[in-house]
Amino acid sequence: MDFFLKVMLFTGMLLIHYVLSSQKNVYLGVVVPLIFVAGMSWRYLTVDTVSVKAQLMIIGIGLFCLMAEWLHGREVFQKNQEKELERLRIKDLK
After folding, report:
1. In whole angstroms, what is the distance from residue 22 CA to residue 26 CA?
2. Cβ contact 11:65 at 8 Å
3. How far from chain centre, in Å, is Cα 89?
4. Separation of alpha carbons 66 and 14, rounded Å
């Protein structure tokens, strides 16, 4: 695969994961990491000839990035929820 295509694929995966993580349902953020682990495991079993240690490191780093993205998405959701609550409080006071 071309390097540019890999970068675009990873960027798209992070964008989709961010959008799913910032939704009301907490468990939507689990979809992309599961697909990532399944895809990397399939790739190890069928395509790559790298060592188990290298493959586990790749999966670990990827899951770390996805976890950080999930936490950021949850923070954004909570901030948006607080803003909406504040708007409702202000509207009720008027």
Report:
1. 8
2. no
3. 32
4. 7
Question: Which of 37, 40, 32, 35 is CA-nearest to residue 73?
Answer: 32
Amino acid at 44: Y
**C-alpha distances out from residue 82 to 20, 30, 44, Å:** 19, 24, 43
Rounded to whole angstroms, the Cα distance separating 69 from 64 reads 9
For the chain, percent of residues with pLDDT exceeding 70: 98
Residue given tokens 């504040």 in the structure block: 86
Q: Is the CB of residue 23 less than 8 Å from the CB of residue 75? A: no
Q: pLDDT for 73-83, tens place per residue?
A: 899 999 999 99
Provide the pLDDT for residue 69. 87
